[in-house]
Amino acid sequence: MAYDLEEQEQIASLKAWWDKYGNATTWVLIAALASYSGWTYWKYHQRNEASQASALYEELQSAVEAKDNAKVLRAAGDMEAKFGSTAYAPMAALVAAKSSFEANDLKSAKAQLQWAADHGADEFKAVAKIRLAGVLLDEKAYPEALKALEGDVPAQFAGAVADRKGDILAAQNKLAEARTAYQAALDATDKKNPGRQLIQMKLEAIGGTVPADKGAA
């Protein structure tokens, strides 16, 4: 059927518009569709990844209960390699470090703690730093232990970091510096925290004094 004049004018206008804007419009549409598809895939991938990581974490916990440290380390390694971007990975590293420590495999314990300190979110990183410094303190690797505590940590961990620093300095017989660290730990620790009394005892044991307004509540 032949087009009438009005239809022909509309077609001509459409062709003119397409010649001018059609190519750009196509690319915008493609980009929009690609962006939506990418977002949808990313969300699916996240859900799928979290599900797999959760299953692997359960496997790791089962190995811990069985006291099979070799299997714990394999599961933790798989978690770090495949799901390192999830929260399960630093949790797995901390659990594997504890398992290795209890199995007297200090090399693996330190490696797992270092991984959590390097890759975990702030809270996991702080816990890993404190625990790693503790293992190094036991080994009398004092400079390495102090180095492990370097860097910023969330405010709620400041007291624990200062306390660990005081332990390392006291072990080196650097008592003036240790007193300063313990005092910083007291200042950063809530008076209702039961661990505060132990910090105070350590401070007093190396000749420090705690003013009444800074003592345990």
Number of strands: 0
Distance between the termini: 95 Å
Count of helical regions: 9
Q: How large is the share of residues in beta strands?
A: under 5%
**What oligomeric state do the depicted chains represent?**
single chain
**Structural class computed from helices and strand pairing:** mainly alpha
Give the overall pLDDT as a whole number. 83
Q: What's the main sheet like? A: none
The parts where pLDDT drops under 50 for at least 5 residues are 37-45
What proportion of the residues is helical, as a percent range? over 70%
Radius of gyration: 29 Å
Q: Rough shape? A: extended
Q: H/E series, N to C? A: HHHHHHHHH
How would you explain this protein's 3D organization?
Among the domains are: 49-120, no CATH class; 141-209. It is extended. The protein has helices at residues 5-65, 69-82, 88-102, 106-119, 122-138, 142-148, 158-171, 175-188, 196-205. The protein is built from 9 helices and no strands. 76% of the residues lie in helices and 0% in strands. It has 217 residues and is mostly helical.
